[in-house]
Batch of 4 targets.
Target 1
Amino acid sequence: MKSCWIVTRDHTAVLEWRDVPVPQAQAGEIVIRVRATAMNRGELVVGGAVHGGPEKIGGTEAAGEVHAVGAGVTAFRPGDRVCGRVRGGFAEYAAMFAHQAMPVPPPLTWEQAAAIPVSFLTAYEMLYPPYGKLKAGEWLLVTGASAGAGVASIQTAKLLGARTLGTSGSAEKLARLKAVGLDVAIGTRSADFAAQVLAATGGKGADLIVNLVGGSLFAECVSCLARCGRLAVVGYVDGVLKAEIDLAAVHANRYEIFGISNAKLTAGERAHAVRGFVRDVLPAIADGRITPFVDRVFAFDELPAARGCMESNAMVGKIVVRGH
């Protein structure tokens, strides 16, 4: 089968086309015929250029039909429409653990389904218990809100009845975010938004902050948290991995600071998150209350162009690549 690999050379992630065998479904796994996959910055930019690591087939999420099931898999059978986190979505076929697979609601296109797994599962873990615990009427602030996880967080927050603030340096992006539920748009790329957050929330501050940018905004985020506020550390696209922290403010206001990453999750923890998402959020996608936001769709052979589009920061939501 045709596949696209990510190889780290000189601290840069390089894409390479290769022909490799179709993966075989091992015990507890399924193999899907990939109909669409999606781009994720952490894999191609941060994952490749910062962390390095071994070469691998690219693509961490995909949607498609079940091609084969491994021993012990009873929840899915060949022909089922599924999406989820996979190993090697930049290929004609991809393997995934069955506990990561989710049914694709009938109204969704393959492209919309491929936009769900990484961004929406990340948003789910950030906003729902035991971490974000966002409630109706509370305020959510998302920095770098036009990213896939940012858009998913805004849409999920509206499902919960929360109010939303988001930052972006692009007026056009903020206008598009307003169309998917953003209540208060803050036009900035700098650490200068605390006053606007406090003004919008009547001096209270944000109950939950999702920081998708990194360390350059960390201190500013802490400064505009509400009492008993929660701060999610999700990414560091700014490349700033360290930041000062106001311990007195954290102490006095009972702040909670937590990270959301899949890097060290156990299989049980991953399965628990998927079950919760299927129970709490997927029904809203199925009935149209939430529509996965796909910015652009590329053909499989256009993967390098899709990567370039992502690195240009031109998108709102997800960039999706159709299967080969």
Target 2
Amino acid sequence: MKSKICGISDSETLKYLVEHPNPPQYIGFIVNYPKSKRFVEYNRLKEILKIDKKNSKYVAVLVQPDDSILEKIKDLSFDYYQLYDCTLVEIKSIKEKYNIKIIVAITVKDQNDIVKYMEYNDHADIILFDSKGYEKSMSFDHQLIKNLKTNKELMLAGNIQIEDNIVNYKEIADIVDISGGLETSGLKDISKINIFLEKIKQINNET
């Protein structure tokens, strides 16, 4: 089972993640969505991303990105763009123009939203199922994606908490994506991050 820790906005936390003995495979940064308290302004982002990612992949989280932000970040050390609210045409265009791997984010309220993945399947490297919450931590019924048939890796987000029985997500998805569940008073909490990464390690050791 792989992990993604999202909403990193300071260098201290990022250093802790990349230097951890069991680092997350993916680390996400909110690039163009100022409504989120985890949004990182461009100049600060540029500085933070100078930190060596070591064995992790850096992910730019983008909501309906326009050409100006895409041009701005094209030389930063991102491995993936995680795209919300983009059409298939826009996704294909971004993937081709910037030669970047794409995580297509599908926000879910009910079963009708789940089937949308089929439209994007051929152009996504990873398909993420998230809640409709965006800047708020909301959840959806994760069991809705349990029996999907796809050749792509599935990532699961949406109000995942470290108290959850994380091993249950292994039957549903390949990658678990957590953000608010690792915070205390709105800030990333190193002790919670460590608990989460240790849980992932334990699950992988047991299976």
Target 3
Amino acid sequence: MEAKKPTHEEKVKKLMNELLDGVVSVFKDECSCNVSDTARQLEFSEAKTRKLLITAGVRDNTVYYSSGICQQINELYSQGKSISEIMKATGLGNKSVQGYLPYTKVVYKLPELTAAAKRVRISRSRQRLCDRYTTYISGMSKTAEDKFFWETLKKIAGKTFYITDKKGKRIPFTYSINARSKLCIDKFETVLCKKDIMSAYHNARDPQSMPVSDDISKYLYPIFSEMKIRKA
């Protein structure tokens, strides 16, 4: 007997659960329960990220995201108050109130949901590469390790990293690698060549090797730190 194909509704439900699981994972495991960092990592809006975390919390009977206004709105909603009544009680507009309530149904169209779930998969895949990097290179020859390092850099391109300015503020950045093997730091318009990157990598792996400039290490060491590479 031919296996029954999943219905549209089943596909949507499965993808929605995958999306919720992924957002919670990135929120807890990669972003230290920081909504802003999670949104940035997944390229979602903060409002969307927050609403997905609230929805996952209701599904899992736990709390992933909470704030005073979030608790107030959900308590009023659980008491049977209408959106209009909650708006009046909180002084917030309809959109703001809705933003603190869980999704009661899947409002995404299948293509949009598929794209969102794919984005989460990519983010989690990048993080796994970082987390397991030192395990992967264990026992490799220097030549093989250098090649694997460069390929890993390409695969995790697009992930958000952070530098700290003189005032101690964390500033996010991403990077891309172009066809000429140059690493381009987005936002800061900084370009690093492969030779300098490899020197910095060898320095991080072996502090006795040639030192690198502060400008290079400024951007590369946050990446190396995520990859659990020893810093000089």
Target 4
Amino acid sequence: MDVRRALQLARDADVDLVEVAPNSDPPVCRLLDYGKLRYLTSKKERESKRGQKSNDLREVRFRPNIGTHDLDSKTRKVRELILDGSKVKLTVRFRGREAAHQQLGLAVLKRVADELKDEVRLEKAPALEGRALSMILIPSAQPAQKPERPEKAAPKSDKPEEQSVEDLANAQT
């Protein structure tokens, strides 16, 4: 069909003539309402974005000499973030002479990891980054439930940086 005839058909039907495949021989065009098409595609994009869960890395900061109640409230916050499905980076910041006592910061991280050991896995072991000691926790694959059968020995992970929280606790003692 020639271009004049296609344009006339589009005007008569009160729709747009949209070129769908310009590289084909001959080029392919369709008669459709272009504004409606744009609206529907943007609506589909919004729906697909709504269904996605962004896996953010959230950070919770501690101090090496944090009080017990402050530690408990921050641990509750970490638990909420983990249950939402986010990765959580636990950071202990050292100021001044505190950097000489890194074992205090390690004890804080170990205590938080021990309290959350049923809900989390260790993605990155504690490491010193400048004046901060940090580790990354991720949600465990399955929800924490009591096994009905006796557990078998868990196979070792292929990834060297993924460890269980129990492995961290054993390494520190």
